[in-house]
Structures are given as structure tokens and as C-alpha cells.
Design brief:
Length: 342
């Protein structure tokens, strides 16, 4: 099996390569792709090195899988080309997620959506990803009527420039130096909280990130009627997204029953003893593939509502790990294509 990793020099792309090695992903050959300026760069791959290539029509031939994390513009152009050349493309960008003929898949939640794919599979938004992993056992046991989610998202979700901006601003504040003007975010991110993740489109009071969470959650959980409201906030944390999720179930579900359900579910670790200071934090989640859940409690204003605190590593389960897990599912289920598409 030949596997292409497109965007291999970026934060998520390099994490994909790391996760593949950790999970002993069964590939005969792995080829990293990146921009022209990165071509020729060498990436450590255990006992050997991989040479980065630039995208080109000849260079993309003969692959079984292509794992993409190179942004929407690159995915728009090159995902169909890989699919036409016979590969199955698993894309981390937002471009293909809401296409009717592209499955949007979280490995623990809706693996059956992979059946009948047409050469393209989409990875959800990182905030959506960790939330639906926690919601799936609740959905199966008691149904879900409505969700209200507030996110607290790390700067690594924006990219390396955002990480550097937080570092530079925090250092300036601590050392009482002149604060660098914000370039990545509209306001200072250090020691601040910005109630804007991504952008506002004309005439819309919700950001594009909030719209993604609402639409993607409905698609993944298979419910167009699901009521959901999202507020997404950027906070000065390097890695790990946190979420406060209010879940209104169809049937009664106690906090105790919810803890048991989540503790037995794949991809979830319950940390819930708040009286002793035990609950998930972004620091706990960094470097982990599991979604961490705690503060499971009854909403006192509604007898069929629970509150959850959900935390995940946005670079791993929120992006890279799920992409590799989806690739594993495609292989195990015999859903890889070995001939060029028409």
C-alpha cells in the first residue's frame, strides 16, 4: 500500500506522520508532499528518512491512500485529482465536509458512513470531532433533542503563526515591554479570551467556526432536526480544545448512568471527581488520543439536561489521529480503490 501525506510539513501533517508510526500503520511506502519551497526537505521516519515532494500530475500516480492537511484551496484542487488517479483521499480541510456525496466520518461514531464512498472522505472540524465522540453513547442510549456548546479553543488550531503570536505577546506582557501589534487575531490573545473563532460572513451573527460545528454535528449524528447552538472562543492555550456542552436528551438519563456509558465507550476517558480536583484540562489532553470528559452533572433548570466538560487534543484526535483511524478502517473494510476512477 502506497500512502501520500499532503501538507506533511505542517502541524497536522507532521502529527499524521507521527501517529502513523505510533500505530505501526501498514504502509509499504509513505510519500510526504508539501509546497514547492519544501520540496527536497527530509523528514525523519524511524531508521530512514522521507523526502518531501511537490504536487504534480505525475507525482500523484499509483497511491492507494492520500491523507490531506494542506488547507481548503489545495484540497479543492488536488483531492479530486488523487481520487481520479485511484486513491482514496481523507481530507482534513473544511472544503468537502458538507458535500452530499462525501462521508464525514469520526471513527468511533459513524464508521458505516464510509460504505459507498466515491474516493473522498472528510474529517470533521476539531471541535466537532471531540464533541460527537462524547455524544455518541448518549445518543444511542437516550436520544438527543438539543445541544448548547461553548468552546475554549487553543491557538494551535489556527496554526504556527498564532502559536508564535501568543508566545511573543505573553513574553512582552511578562517582561513589561511594548506589546507587538496583533497580526493573526483581531485583538491581543495573550491573557485574553476572544469570542471569535474564524470569521463573520456578511449578515450572519455566527462565525464560520460556529456554523461548521452546528452543520457538521447534524451530518455526523444523522439528524437534520437536531437543535444546536454554538459559541466558539479562542483562549491563550497552546494545545487542547475545551468545551462546555449542555445536552437535552429525549429520554431521562442520570449523571451516574451517563458516566457508566461514557466510561465503557471507545475513545473516551472519564475524569470526574471534582471534589478532589479531578476533571479534564487542556494540559491533560495534550498528546492524548482519547477525548476526556468530566463535570458530568444534571442541569438544574431541566430534568432531561446534562452538562459535560469535554477536552481533546485538537492536533491529534481533532485532526491527525482520526484521519489515520479512518485510513485504517478503509483498509480493514476493503474500501480502498486500486484502479483509477472514471
Amino acid at each position: 500500500m502506497r500512502v501520500a501525506v499532503v501538507g506533511a510539513t505542517g502541524a497536522v501533517g507532521s502529527t499524521i506522520l507521527g501517529v502513523m508510526r505510533e500505530r505501526s500503520f501498514a504502509a509499504d511506502e509513505v510519500v510526504p508532499f508539501a509546497s514547492e519551497r519544501s520540496a527536497g526537505r527530509r523528514i525523519d521516519w524511524g531508521e530512514t528518512e522521507l523526502e518531501v515532494r511537490a504536487l504534480g500530475e505525475e507525482a500523484i500516480q499509483g497511491f492507494d491512500l492520500a491523507l490531506f492537511s494542506a488547507g481548503s484551496h489545495t484540497s479543492e484542487e488536488w483531492v479530486p485529482r488523487f481520487a481520479a488517479a485511484g486513491a482514496v483521499a481523507v481530507d482534513n480541510s473544511s472544503f468537502w465536509r458538507m458535500s452530499d456525496d462525501v462521508p464525514l466520518v469520526v471513527s468511533e461514531v459513524n464508521p458505516g458512513a464510509l460504505d459507498g464512498h466515491k474516493g473522498i472522505v472528510a474529517n470533521p472540524n476539531c471541535s466537532t470531532m471531540q464533541m460527537v465522540v462524547a455524544l455518541k453513547p448518549i445518543l444511542d442510549a437516550a436520544g438527543i433533542e438539543r445541544l448548547v456548546v461553548s468552546t475554549y479553543q487553543s491557538v494551535s488550531g489556527t496554526g504556527q503563526r498564532a502559536v508564535e503570536e501568543l508566545h511573543d505577546q505573553a513574553q512582552a506582557v511578562i517582561e513589561a515591554k511594548e506589546l507587538p501589534a496583533p497580526a493573526v487575531y483581531p485583538h491581543q490573545i495573550a491573557f485574553n479570551a476572544l469570542p471569535q473563532v474564524e470569521t463573520f460572513k456578511d449578515g450572519d451573527d455566527y462565525t464560520t467556526e460556529e456554523r461548521k460545528m452546528m452543520a457538521e454535528t447534524r451530518k455526523i449524528l444523522g439528524s437534520d432536526e437536531l437543535g444546536i447552538s454554538a459559541t466558539c472562543v479562542r483562549i491563550p492555550v497552546y494545545t487542547g480544545h475545551s468545551e462546555s456542552v449542555n445536552v437535552q436528551t429525549r429520554d431521562p438519563l442520570s449523571p451516574e448512568e451517563c458516566r457508566k456509558l461514557l466510561s465503557a465507550a471507545p475513545g473516551i476517558r472519564v475524569i470526574d471527581d471534582p471534589g478532589n480536583g479531578l476533571y479534564p484540562t487542556a494540559v491533560d489532553a495534550a498528546g492524548q488520543d482519547d477525548v476526556l470528559v468530566g463535570r458530568i452533572r444534571r442541569d438544574p433548570s431541566h430534568d432531561r439536561c446534562l452538562n459535560l466538560w469535554v477536552v481533546g487534543d485538537n492536533l491529534r484526535k481533532g485532526a491527525a489521529t482520526n484521519a489515520v483511524q479512518v485510513a485504517e478502517l478503509l483498509k480493514v473494510r476493503g474500501l480502498l480503490r486500486r484502479a483509477p476512477a472514471n
